[in-house]
Amino acid sequence: MRYSLFSLARQALRGHRGWQPVWRDAAPQASYDVIIVGGGGHGLATAYYLAKEHGIRKVAVVEKGWIGSGNAGRNTTIIRSNYLLPGNEPFYEWSMKLWEGLEQDLNYNAMVSQRGVLNLYHSDAQRDAFARRGNAMRLAGADAELLDAGAVRSMLPFLDFDNARFPIKGGLLQRRGGTARHDAVVWGYARGASDLGVDIIQNCEVTGFVRDGDRVTGVTTTRGTIGAGKVGLAVAGSSSRVAQYAGLRLPIESHVLQAFVSEAIKPLIPGVVTFGAGHFYISQSDKGGLVFGGDIDGYNSYAQRGNLPTVEDVCEGGMALMPVIGRVRMLRSWGGLVDMSMDGSPIIDRTPLQGLYLNAGWCYGGFKATPGSGWCFAHLLARDEPHPTARAYRLDRFATGHLIDEKGQGAQPNLH
After folding, report:
1. Residues 259 and 331 sit within 8 Å (Cβ to Cβ)
2. pLDDT by residue (tens digit) across 56-93?
3. How far is Cα 176 from Cα 181, in angstroms, rounded to an integer?
4. Mapping DSSP to helix (H, G, I), strand (E, B) and coil, where does residue 404 land?
5. How large is the C-alpha radius of gyration of the chain?
6. Cβ-Cβ contacts under 8 Å for 399 (sequence gap 6 or more)
7. What is the SS3 string spanning 336-390?
8. Which of 314, 324, 333, 397 is spaced 20 to 30 Å from 219 by Cα?
9. Can you list the residues of the chain whose pLDDT is less than 50?
10. CA distance from start to end of the chain
């Protein structure tokens, strides 16, 4: 069924009784050409592009819960491509271009809203660093504007420009950045993949790998053994645990990243704003709630819940930036399980085992990378060679020293 104004009108006249399920809830077959472990945005996007771009349609997406039950449903929905390093910026810009055509490609309303992303700076040194980043973005084909304090004040007059400790001196603006509806992205990719013949298998947890020597030939699951020509892992914060089934130890730590939403208020924040003197980012949803977050919790965990010290830290950052939100009530919070790599950048590569491929280490950048990640992982699985924009995302870079340290913090995951 193709969605359009005409199909909506037709179904309205029929009492909305003719709508079909968005995707098929399939039962596992004996074997597939490719199995994707993980039914989040990255896994579903990979399956979709495998079928659409490479013609590989005997594909299964295996998810231990329901699709989108992990980080895809536990983030702050920001999309952007404002990166600095040549290993990152071309990839995220390619992902941004895919975002811009996603709804037309999928025939699904993912609520992509290019309302702009503004990173504030608070010192001359930070201004110079943002100018460098903006120039790197423009060299890679992205848009970037360096604003002074007056331009920022005209956009966001409610910010605390006179804060004695953190005066706002300007910001780096990417107008093409913005937000998207996380659940709709998952559903859209699931619908597109299912229509192309991909099996989406929910409530099917992977418990091990079938091996023939150093080659992976399938997976064992709670719903039986499934054979595969190739297996791709896209399980975010569970990457280390699932890789252990194959005897692999990954350069990844799992941490909780909390996010928050307030009660609904009248339109206040036109785009996405980040605080340059602390880790705080905020936008406003279409329902009116303020959606915001900050740093990961400071210890390793596999729990999808956080704790109060991080809540306090995030709220302090928000109050330092815009005291006006102090009277707004927080409605709820949630935690996502993020896979923090040693240099803060992702991995899209083959593993030492033949037939087993890895998509992991997305840190804070997983949601915004969804289309690009799926495109590049599908390219790797189909052709056994990295996509040009993802060549730097090698697994062995931590051994060879070719790190992609976007923040310049060193090889310590909790600092990224």
Report:
1. no
2. 999 999 999 999 999 998 899 999 999 999 999 999 99
3. 16
4. coil
5. 21
6. none
7. EEEEEECCCCCEEEECCCECEEEEECCHHHCCCCHHHHHHHHHHHHHHCCCCHHH
8. 397
9. none
10. 43
